[in-house]
Structure formats: C-alpha cells, structure tokens
Amino acid sequence: MTKTIENLTNNRKITRRTGLFALVASAIAIASFAAPQASFAADKSIKVGITSGEDEDVWKVVTAEAAKNGLAIKVVVFNDYTQPNEALERGDIDANAFQHKPYLDNQIKTQGYHIVPVGYTGVWPIGLYSKKFAKIAELPEGAVIGVPNDPSNEGRALRVLEDQGVIKLKPGTGILATIADIVENPKKVKIKELDAGIVGRSVEDLDAAVVNTDWALKSGLTPANRIAQEKIADNPYRNFIAVKAGQEKEAWVKTLVSSYQNDKVKAEFDRVYKGTGISAY
Question: Where is the signal peptide (predicted)?
Fold first, then answer.
C-alpha cells in the first residue's frame, strides 16, 4: 500500500514535470514565431550599374538611404550605354539604372536580354542644340544636324525635328524611326548619325545637334544653347531601375526602388541636374 502511494506520488511529480517542460517548450516555440525576423538585407550587398557623370552624386544619396534599410549598394560606373545591360545579363551586376523603355526594348530585340524595369527614376527631355543659331527658323538650307545613332534615340531625335517642322516622317512610323523614314525635307538638311556620347561634343562642328540631356551636360551645353526640346507630356522616355527577369519580386528590389524614390534623393537629383532632368515617379 505504501509503495502504491509512493508510485502515485512519483507519477504525479513526473506528470507535473512533463507538463512544465511542455509549457516551456510551447512558450519558446511561440516566441520564435512571434519574434521579428532579421532583415533580409542585414548582410545583403548588390552592385548597381550607372553611367558616369551627375548620376554618381545622385547614387551616393541612394546608397546612403539603402544602408539605413540594411541594403549595401556598390555602384559600378560605365562610360557608355552598351555596357550596363550586357553586365546585368551576365550577372556581373544585380541592377542598372540608365535607360528608357524604347532603348531596352530594342536591346532585348537585338541582343536577347532578359531584363525588366522595376521602378522609374527620371526623364531627361532631349533637345536640339546649336552654338551658331538661336532659333529653328535660322537654320539654313542644307544645314548639317547631328543625331544619336542608336535606334531608340535616333527615332526620338527625328521626332523632335518633325515636331519643329524641319522634316516629316512617313505616316505610321514608330519610335524607332530612321533617316530612311524621312519623306519631306524642305530645307534639305543633312542628318549626321553619331554615337550618343559624341554628338554633344560635336555641336561646334555642326549647325545643330539633337543631344540627350545627360550628354548635353557632360558636353558643356547649356539651356542657352537649346533651340528646341521634345514634349514632356506623355513622354515614353522615362528612365528606370532594371533587374534580370525573375528577380523583380525579390525583397531587395523593393528596398532598392524605395531607396531611390524619396524626397532626399529627389533634392539631390534636382541639385545636380538643375532642372534639365525631372523626377519621373
């Protein structure tokens, strides 16, 4: 009888001890699920490709904003438009920020890249610049006008000339128009196709040139040299941050975009571009 009582007492102790262990284990498990998870970016580092120039200052601010959210950005600077997409496709960088959709569409078509936009940055209205003439009407017959030679920007440049009445393009011609699509040229202007990075530096040797705004700044051109500019309303040439297809839903991508699209970055953007570029998000 005594042993039976002892056994019952021991069993109760074991039951209480087992229950206590179970409660502690449950509490630990609940705490584990309830505790905030470590930031994905606590040790996340990415490489972002941009083109050299004023954008380097803008991305210093972007990098600082990203660091606040645990995302370390290493900026990789390129000197022309062809390298950033190639580097992104190869996986040498994780994202880039330098192009608009017509340019990317053409790169995908011709190079087979797998790249998608994930967040807008800014738009730089392309302009017609001259150091010889102050107005479109002053351009003489046979004037030599430089345009960028890459497909998307050449079509864009020709649209500026068409809007100003210098030329007329074939009806229905899309944004990838070429000089072969010119059907009217009342002043018999000569269109000279040049690399986008060179056309701005060649203005003094030309009568006028259609130059991308970023290259205009790098070439020392000012608004005083601009005699025409493309329309801003419904502009299809907004630049954006891009990543490899399949990466667009990654958490770091959202952080990267928000690190650009904020008031601090906009203030720096406005400072370095002095109104020649416009935030587009």
Answer: 1-41
The whole-angstrom separation of Cα 214 and Cα 197 is 9
Sheet holding 190-194, edge to edge: 190-194, 144-148, 208-211, 127-129, 226-229
Phi–psi pair at 40, nearest 5 degrees? -55, -30
Q: With contact defined as beta carbons under 8 Å apart, do 185 and 158 qualify?
A: no
CA-based nearest residue to 213, from 134, 125, 275, 274: 125
Q: Judge whether 15 lies within some domain.
A: no
Output DSSP code: residue 12: H
Q: Residue type for 281, please?
A: Y
Q: Which two tokens stand for residue 108?
A: 């995908």
Contacts of residue 226, defined as CB under 8 A and 6 or more positions apart, other chains included, come to 127, 128, 129, 216
> How far from the centroid of its chain's Cα atoms is residue 169's Cα?
29
Which tokens go with 107?
């790169």
Q: How far apart are CA 159 and CA 151, in angstroms?
A: 13
pTM over 0.85: no
CA distance 273 to 129: 17
Domain assignment present for residue 141? The answer is: yes
How many domains does the chain contain in total? 2
Based on the fold, state whether residues 55 and 145 are members of the same structural domain. Answer: no
pLDDT per residue of the chain (281 residues) written in tens, 0 to 9: 433 333 333 444 334 333 433 333 333 332 333 333 334 545 799 999 999 989 999 999 999 999 999 999 999 999 988 999 999 999 999 999 999 998 999 899 999 999 999 999 999 889 999 999 999 999 999 999 999 998 878 999 999 999 999 999 999 988 889 999 999 999 999 999 999 889 999 999 999 999 988 789 889 998 899 999 998 777 888 999 999 999 999 999 999 999 999 999 999 999 998 888 899 99
Determine the structural domain holding residue 151 and report its residue range: 127-229
